[in-house]
Amino acid sequence: MVDRRHQRDVDEAAARFAETLAESYRIVxxxxxxxxxxxxxxxQEFSERVMDHLREQAESGRAASERLSDQARRQQEAxxxxxxxxxxxxxxxxxxxxxxxxxxxxxxxxGAREGARTPSDTTAGLLGTATGAAxxxxxxxxxxxxxTADIASGRPPIEGYDEMNxxxxxxxxxxxxxxxxxxxxxxxQGNKNRQTLIAEMDRRLEASSS
Length: 210
Known about the structure:
Helices cover 87% and strands 0% of the residues. The chain folds into two domains: 2-154, no CATH class; 155-210, no CATH class. Helix 1 (2-114) packs antiparallel against helix 4. The chain starts with a helix and ends with a helix. By secondary structure, the chain is mostly helical.
């Protein structure tokens, strides 16, 4: 009787131990499965964040490249316009100085042939003519220098341009030469870049070139 009771107690204890052990294994397995799922979600989230960051960097780099390319194109156009305007201003200055000198020489030679003046008067006339020609040439040089400075600074030849609207500027375009119109267009494109106004300037430039 005692042996059977002792055996039953041993069997019950063994059963409880087995159940406890099984429950412990089940808990460990569930925790391991949960940890694996969390790691999988974390890995996926990390991968998605990395891909989003790479896409943002690529888009930012492409936009910066486009801005640099556009800026380089504008600078190239402004440089070409400046070179053309500088060459034209210099040629105008040389033509003016040469014309004044030739005109003064012709007047002095005519006065000497007619004999209407004494040698001293002729000398004074030549000096006055040379002085006038030099003054005119200096004035032309100053004008050319100012115009070259305006071209270098990129300012348009219309006073108060930045305060004008499209209609006011359009009304002033007829008074501009082709070079001044081209300079105004480059200034507009590099600043406010109003497409309606630029299109109007392009139309006038095409008309003047045809």
